[in-house]
Amino acid sequence: MKLARLAATCLLTSVLAVQPGCDTDDGADIPANQLRYHLEVELQPGAEVHRCQLVTTRDVETFVVGGSHTYSPGSHHMLLFRTDLTSIPPELAGVRDCYEGASSIMSHIRGLVYGAQKPQDASDYPAGVGLPLGANEVLLMQAHYINATGAVMKATVDVILKTGAAAEVQQRAGSLFFYDPFISVPAGAAGRATMSCGIPSAVRLLTANSHMHKRGVGYRAFLDTPAARATTPFYTTDSWDHPSQLAAPMDLAAGSIIRFECDYQNTSQTPYFQGQSADSNEMCMFVGVYYPALTQADEFCTVGPHDFGTGSATCAQTLSCIQQCPPGTAPMVGVGGVGATTMANVHECWQKCFADSCPAAWRPFAAQTKCVRTSCATECASPGSTECQSCALDRCGAELNACFTSTCS
């Protein structure tokens, strides 16, 4: 039975979580241990789109124990996210642009359930391991498509989630979703982005995948300790659109640090920064399935990301750099890191400042930024004002001093 042959009566505005008892066009019932999601997108010639749809799970808690997918040519990736929604709002129903409006549908994502960058694949979790899905949980399905042809393209994505009952699961799985918000690739030159994320407790990593865009030519992921940086990567790939898979599951000790690097080669005379378009922007991500589950903050690396820079600017020089950025462009960094709702919305000026900083600059910068934002919120409603500067010196003097005296060595 082909996934694309789901009966029209089982579809709702192009995407539906097919519930048990819904029939396909060949009369076969969908097994009770599966959830199915389908997305259709029509693209004009030369178009690049991110299309999203909210879908729901069953009305009882269940666990993902495996999955498979197929998608038609032209897709860069497909993703199935958790959200913070308890129901599908009427204004967000149906297939829609993922980033349309000041508060896009993507602002609701809170974790990853399934993802793919290959046209077809399938995998199963180890026995006794499952990724939990709540009763009637609202998920968000995203497809990124590029129509490089001269004709209208009809694109489809189909996902099957194999599910199990709670009694079958002894270990709850989770998904790591590490997203570097600071990327700067100079015109006509090579570039590099890097990010590090801590793993607070021991886990077993089942999968690992990179994510880059068209300038991406190399990727490495290392497993560091607090005392030493690894010299040999545990995962590498040189393909931006069809990256390789992790060779075998691996155990990560408590306190481990995943550090990942993306190399770029820019042959154009246009600089590139982090963003959603595979044509006009770049990305650098680490994504992986693991168990037992950590907190959502750990999965998004919002509690302690560091080592963003690949340049030589100190914390003080980086602070001076961002003070030259346009007013009102500051991202929510330094307060629990860069969250899922803000990680893609970073002004190019800020991206360049951090990309040009040295790895040691981030921690003191984040500390002083957090102090100012939490201790001087009212006074610094207008950054750079006399009131803001006085408050920062009075209440965050130690953090500012640590930034100005830190070095890159």
Any key phrases for this structure?
409 residues, mainly beta, Jelly Rolls, 3 domains, 5-stranded antiparallel sheet, 6 helices, 34% strand, disordered N terminus
Your description of this structure?
The protein folds into three domains: 3-172, Copper type II, ascorbate-dependent monooxygenase, N-terminal domain (Jelly Rolls, Sandwich), CATH 2.60.120.310; 176-307, Jelly Rolls (Sandwich); 314-343 and 360-409, no CATH class. The strands form five sheets. Strands 1, 3, 7, 8, 10 and 11 form a six-stranded mixed β-sheet that branches. The protein is globular and about 70 Å long. By secondary structure, it is mostly beta strands. It is 13% helix and 34% strand. The longest helix is centred in the C-terminal third of the chain and has 14 residues, at 362-375.
Write the layout of secondary structure elements.
Layout: E1 34-43, E2 48-56, E3 62-71, E4 75-83, E5 96-97, E6 109-116, E7 120-124, E8 129-133, E9 138-146, E10 153-164, E11 171-172, E12 174-179, E13 184-185, E14 190-199, E15 203-205, E16 209-211, E17 216-224, E18 235-237, E19 250-252, E20 256-265, E21 272-273, E22 285-291, H1 296-299, H2 315-322, H3 348-355, H4 362-375, H5 386-395, H6 397-405
Parallel strand pairs: 8-11
Antiparallel strand pairs: 1-10, 2-5, 2-9, 3-7, 3-8, 3-10, 4-6, 4-9, 12-22, 13-21, 14-20, 15-19, 15-22, 16-22, 17-18, 17-20
Helix pairs in contact: 2-3, 4-6
